[in-house]
Amino acid sequence: MDTVGIVFVSHSQKVVEGIQDILNQVVNDVPIELAGGTDEDEIGTSIEKIQQAIKQAYTDSGVLVIYDLGSAMMNAEVAVEMSGFDNIEISNAPLLEGGYVAAVESSMGKSLTEVKQSAERALEE
After folding, report:
1. Model confidence pLDDT, tens digit, residues 3-45
2. What is the reported pTM?
């Protein structure tokens, strides 16, 4: 069973590594990739890192991209457009809580749409 892949985009590599540490305690069958920091390992985001993470997380079920700040969203949008895949969604879910819910939902075999909706409702529950 293909699960929805998840890409975390943050201005900080340490932030996304911490989130991955938490998620590794909960799920192990979901492709989770990180795009934190710039190509020079500074604070910021990198279209190239996001593109690479999307390629690595990609499954036939799609990929959900979750980001931390507005400029990360803009770079994620460019990376998605350049990816050539059509089943990628960008979510405005909270990075940790939404990512946690997304990973659990993906591990249950939910669709990309269901995973995205659940992630975006993470703080409502």
Report:
1. 999 999 999 999 999 999 999 999 999 999 999 999 998 999 9
2. 0.96
Task: Please tell me the distance from the alpha carbon of residue 69 to that of residue 9, in angstroms, as a whole number.
Answer: 9
Q: Rounded distance, CA 90 to CA 35, Å?
A: 14
* Residue that has been written with the tokens 């996001």 in this structure: 50
Give me the active site residues, please: 11
User: pLDDT digit string (tens) for 57-66?
Assistant: 999 999 999 9
Residue whose C-alpha is closest to residue 8's, from 54, 42, 39: 54
The alpha carbon torsion through 67, 3, 54, 80 (nearest 10 deg) reads: -70
Pairing between β-strand 88-91 and β-strand 63-67 as defined by DSSP bridges: parallel
Beta-strand runs (E) in 27-69: 32-36, 63-67
> Distance between CA atoms of 65 and 73, rounded to whole angstroms?
9
